[in-house]
Amino acid sequence: MPSRECTCGRGGSGQLSAPRLRADTPERAGLDPVELRHLVREVRTRTRGEHPWAPGAVVVAGRGPVIAVAEAAGWAVRYARYDPETDRGVELPPAARVATTVDTPFDLASLTKLFTAVAAVQQIERGTLGIDARVGAYLPDFPAAARHGITVRQLLTHTSGLRPELPLYDCPDDASRLAMLRAEPPARAPGAPVYSDLNPLLLQHVLERATGRALDVLIHEGITRPLGMTSTRFGPCPGAAATEDQRRPWAKADRGMLRGEVHDENAWALGGVAGHAGLFSTAPDLAVFCRTLLAGGSYGPARILGPDFVELLLTPPGLGFLVDQEWFMGELAGRGAAGHTGFTGTSLVLDPATDTFLILLANTVHPRRRPPDSGPRAAAATRLARAVRGA
User: Fold this and answer.
1) CB proximity list for 261: less than 8 A, separation 6 or greater
2) What is the spatial distance between Cα 47 and Cα 71, in angstroms, rounded to a whole number?
3) Of 105, 228, 235, 243, which has the maximum CB count within 10 A?
4) Helices 198-211 and 112-126 meet at what angle, rounded to 10?
5) In what order do the strands lie in the sheet with 279-281?
6) Could you give the 3-state DSSP secondary structure of residue 351?
7) Phi, psi of 104 (to 5 degrees)
8) pLDDT, tens digit, for every residue of 61-106?
9) DSSP 8-state class, residue 247
10) For 107-128, what is each residue's pLDDT tens digit?
């Protein structure tokens, strides 16, 4: 891997500014307006009725520097609580509900992993971090990871063999949580694919040790501030869409109805800043993030990554990003589309082959979590893919 100076937050020498996003018609974006109308109608329909897919949703989609769809539907806050006796949410009076707008922030859940991955690749570009370096070289006080030779690349590709999660939320204090993470060995031999929240959590510690800066500072200084993503931050975020009436036995903690506090129990136990969850953002901010990567790491005068390092990030199997996953990318999958989903109902997809992006933010866990259903995500992505073909 070549070592290069990182010019995060500024344009490279002699580099022209990358075009900023603008709202325009589907035709100007090179997209079929009929398919996009179907996309919007279907998202709206899924927020209606007594048992909607999500009480509220925001969809933003575009191609190149053009945002062709920016629509909100339903309620950011619809329920006061969940009633386990009736298996229904107890609805707020209409005057007390909060309508979803395009600028409503959502708890991103696992979309946070993408920002952790970009922060890591920035340090790889800078030469501060070696992609194939062993975690033990940065964290010798994490004996399990050091003993099993887990590497940075394995953390980024979910091939460390670590199990999906640990019950950090049940630990009495920060010291015991850290001790549990330090002592956790792989459940399988490193190299085996196991999707795990422990990978970005461990990567957070690697980044913080290698740079001497906290993860929230790295993401703010290296990504959100230079890109002008002023609505993207770790919580609390009081104006966010509500998530869950979080209570046992369906949840892992008893916290009541959540709004603006991170939903993920481990991220909450860790103070709200974690490598796997904790960020809040809006669809327009995430469109900037997608556009930056599609443009090779630049947006306006800012450059957060060089094009070859963006390619490294998005090349199969992806570093932090999932690549060509039909279950949530629909017909966009197959030619190198990359993205992720979040447990709270969030998702984004960017497709370098067609220069398109799709952000779908929803509060599917309001008023309580249900078995995941990514059918609506895949359907929206398929509509966008057909809009490209039908243009």
Assistant:
1) 235, 236, 255, 268, 272
2) 12
3) 243
4) 40
5) 106-107, 279-281, 233-234
6) strand
7) -65, 130
8) 999 999 999 999 999 999 999 999 999 999 999 999 999 999 999 9
9) -
10) 999 999 999 999 999 999 999 9
